[in-house]
Amino acid sequence: MLNLEEKLKNLPQKPGVYLMKNGEGQIIYVGKAINLRSRVRQYFQSSKSQSAKVYVLVENIKDFEYIITKNELEALVLECNLIKKHRPRYNVTLKDDKHYPYIKITLNESFPRVIIVREIIKDKGKYFGPFTDSKAVKQTIDLIRKIFPVRSCNKNIEKIAGKERPCLNAHINRCLAPCTGKVSKEEYADIIKDVSLFLEGKQQNLITELEEKMKRFSENLEFEKAADIRDQLEAVNKINEEQVAVSSRLEDLDIIAYEVSGKLVSVQIFFVRLGKIIGRENFFLSDIGESEADEIIDSFIKQYYNKAVYMPKNILVSTELEEKEIIEKWLSDKKGSKVKISIPYRGEKRKLMQMAKRNAAESLRLEVERTDKDKEKTTALMSELAVILDIPNNIHRIEAFDISNIQGVDNVGSMIVFEDGKPIKKHYRRFKIKGFEGQDDYASMREIIERRIIRGLEERGSIEDQNTEYKNGKFSKFPDIIFVDGGLGQINSIIPILEKYNLDIPVCGMVKDNRHRTRGLIYKGQEILLPWKSEIFKLIVRIQDEAHRFAITYHRSLMRKKVKKSVLDEIPGVGTARKNALLKHFKNIEEIKASSIDDLLSVESINKKVAENIINFFKN
Predict the structure, then answer these.
(1) With the C-alpha atoms ordered 212, 217, 221, 226, is the resulting torsion angle positive or negative?
(2) What pLDDT shows up at residue 562?
């Protein structure tokens, strides 16, 4: 393998993306370049002009790889996708962006629904978001269902049309009841079009359309329908009046401002549609290190608009961007028309930017206060646990283990990690039991504990100092205490393993009552009952439930894979890609069995012949 010096000499003078790696082979930074040779070499030149962040990054780079692209724009798109996939340590990243909800109109269905989803897939649906406030999203969905009579059930309307009675929602005018077969697709599509205008913030356009509909129904003497439209108009008008008019130019803008505190950044976006503020969102960026202002906003714009489903013509920012032109080109290509990024220096736009900055600062203040309070609370909780167990040292890291199987089949184990009372999901690990077949929970627990210890010692290189914190390696950081799901038998099964490797780590059992609910702890042969309303009891319950959830989820996933393989793989024309597409779309085998030809054809990569094969397979 070439060393770094040799690899630097062989770098091409072409555009592309580079991926920096640490000694463990983990990707720790992703960047793009017009000229790979020039850009990557800069990292390893004189450190006098380097920022503190770059200096620390270079210290950890042990290897790199690169991907050549056609041009800088293609490199930018690839960089965005790789940062999202790998979430490198030294890139500025959106905090937990994968969890943000979207509002989706299921246009892939004959009679679409309006639902909340957590990811965007290519299924012809129309998406709005992402949103950071889940509660506000649910309230928006509730409001839409009050104003517009769209269905909320997930029934297959094509199959049941005319065969079912209307539900309660239909009787209270909350649904057009397409299940009765009395509503045409065209009539229902008109309602969905209105919902779309509402979610796009185009209330004035919606009001105009509703007024025209009401007039048309009145002229046709359809007074009941006209009255329904009148009620919708009143609701939309009220919302329209509550929105703040900020511009007489009736333009669409996104205003992005930010504030920094330590390693946390609060980014506020104000959404202006047709001259009115229709909403705002606040996001947090983590791991900013010593990043400059332009890098912070640059990273946010790339990550946010890489998934955003609507893009305005104008984006206002508070600092000049080094990559402004290429980002504008990328956004314009995504939108299909010109997108401009600019800094407002005067007038109403400047005032809007100042308002966004004030709100970003307030969100940051509240987040810092909340974090500080949580830290104080969890520190006190860990101290209390140490006192209860009579452990002299502070408890910082807890590792909890559980076993899952069904009559000895597909034995698996889980390891979850809590640090300072909070789950650290990136440290969770799963194990397949390899040492034997059949059901033996004690042997299973011994195996996963020993494998975990061996891996940790291998990554450390020695066991001379088990309390040292190691940055690299998945298992190198050892716990202050081990929790196992079970009683004295489970504890006694793993004590010899710890002694074998000269590890002085306390082991505590989490016991349940005869109704399978957490009862207390077992430590040093004694059962410790905890007040069930206490915070420490709630923490133990949470740890035990999380260890069980993680183990059983893994076990179920293995079982599902077996089921998927034994059924779908037998259908002619259904390979791995089509099988995955079917299961992603329908969620389970039963839904695939109940699907129609049209349902199947709505799945990407499924053609008519394959759809017929699937239908015929499940008929026989």
Answers:
(1) negative
(2) 62
